[in-house]
Every structure is written in structure tokens, then in C-alpha cells.
Amino acid sequence: MNSLLAAAPPVPPHRFQDSRFSPNRTMATPSSSRKRKASLSPSPEGDPMSTSPAMPNARLPTNTTPRSIKRARPNLTGKPLLIPRLLETLDAKSLRSVIQALCDKHGSAIQEEIRHLAPRPSVSSTLQVLREYQHTMNAAFPIGDNPGSDYSYNRVRQHLNTLLDALSDFTPQFLPPVEPQSSTSLTYLDGVMSIIHELPQWDSASHNLVKENAYEEIARAWGCVIREASKRGGGIQLQYGGWDDKLRRHNELAGGRLAEAVNELRQSLAWMAAGRGPGTDHPEPQSSIRQQLFSGTYGPGAASMRTGTGW
């Protein structure tokens, strides 16, 4: 037994055998017993004398409302484009084709709806369309050939008919009673006359019939507008707008084909020459109807209305 105890290895001392579990109490020194003066500035982070623990990396909880994030749809499939977006991609020609196809398919019901919603065509926009047709016709002429030959006529005949058809369709839109303003009608006719004057003159008389018909149709339009304008204000708008001079010049360029319209205009303005004496070129100031209109003495009872009697 003693031999076994003697052979056992010695036990090592315990690790914390001589250590103290409480901190050592040191003697207070005069320097450590002094109180620290309070600082006026806030204590920096990490100051051991701070009354609150330092939290340099701590994040305080915030009561923020969660943002509504639009999530991508998981099952994204193709679908037709919305009509407003589809119309944004169409040019003017494609849009006209779509509207024309709808009119052909649904008949007069949708045509009246479109006519009601669409703005009225202006004189400038209409003349621009006619000028585009004219430009297309002029571009179809063969280079180096006689512009009045039959070959040139066959090359541009389709474009010429397209221009004349558009002219026939647009003209009634600017005539009374559809167009109430005589000045608008006269402005349109003045612009259209320039296009008709520039139509080609062919060597064959049969090919020139289309131009003759255009002059005849536009002459009737002039007469219609002149008769309507003469009913408003005694035709003063015709005289002061210079339309008598313009129509006379158009008649000269047309070779006298507008003589009927010129006579209609002269008859409408005949009352303005009533105050002119024989052999004089200027109206008498006392008897001129124009002066009476400006002074307010034209017509029976004008004097009594001016003096306040006769009521």
C-alpha cells in the first residue's frame, strides 16, 4: 500500500489557489481622493466619468412607416397595347388609314360622329393639302420631255385627277350656308384660283377639258359667295376687301372664264355708284350711300332715330 502511494505522481497545485476573488483594495492617496470638477461641455464618448453608458455603434429603434414597394409581377405575360399608347406610335398617314377603315366598316354612324368631333378645316390647312397634291403631280412629269405632250399627260393624269377631286370635295365646305363668314370663303377661293392657274396646259384640246371644268366650277362658287356677301352690309366687305380687283385679275389670267362672276360682283356693287355724278370718278359726299352709312343717316327714319323723335 505504501508502495502504491509512493509511486503516484504528485498533483499540480490548483490554478486559482493563491488568487483573490475580490479586487485588491488600495490605499487612498491624496491625488485620488480629490473630486473632479464638473465640465460645462458634454462628456465625450468613451468618458469613464459619464453618467450614461456610451453607445457609439448602437442604433435606436425608429417608428417609421414601411414604404410600399411595388413588386414586380412574378407572372409577366404579353398583352395588347393600350389604345392611347398605340395612337402615339401612329403617324398622320397611318392614323388616317385606321380612321378610314373604321368609317368603311361601321358606315354613316361613325362618320357623323367623326364629323362632329373633328375641328373645322381652316383655309391654310386645306390649301396646304391641295399644294401637296400639286407638288406630287409636278414631280411626276418626265424629265426632258415636252410638258404638254400626250406622254406627259399619261404620266401625271392620275395625280391630276386626284388634285381635281380634292378640289371638288373641299370647295363646298367653304361655301354658304356651311361657311357663315364671307371673308373666309373669299380667301379660300382666292387661294384655289392660284392653283388652277398653275395647272398644265396640254397640246391636246381634249386633255384641257378638266381645267375648263375646274374654272367653270370655281366661277359658280365665286357667284354664290358674292350673292351672299352682298346681302350683308350692302356688299361693303366686297369693296373694302379689294375683292373686285382680285377677281378682275383672276379673270384676266383665266382668259375671261370668270366673266359671269365679275358681272355678279359689279351688280352687287352697283349701289355704290349711285351717288356718282356723270363724268365724275368720285362719289358726291352729300349723296353717297357710303357716307350715309358711316354717319348713321342711311335709310328712312334715320334722322328721327338720331334726334330721339318718332318713338
Describe the structure.
The chain has 311 residues and is mostly helical. Among the domains are: 91-120, no CATH class; 123-268, Up-down Bundle (Methane Monooxygenase Hydroxylase, Chain G, domain 1), CATH 1.20.58.1590. It has 13 helices and no strands. It has helices at residues 2-7, 83-88, 92-106, 108-117, 123-139, 150-170, 182-197, 209-230, 236-240, 243-253, 259-268, 289-295, 302-307. Helix 5 packs antiparallel against helix 6 (150-170) and helix 10 runs antiparallel to helix 11 (259-268). It is elongated. It starts with a helix and ends with a helix. Residues 275-287 and 302-311 have low confidence and may be disordered.
What brief labels describe this structure?
transport; mainly alpha; disordered C terminus; Methane Monooxygenase Hydroxylase, Chain G, domain 1
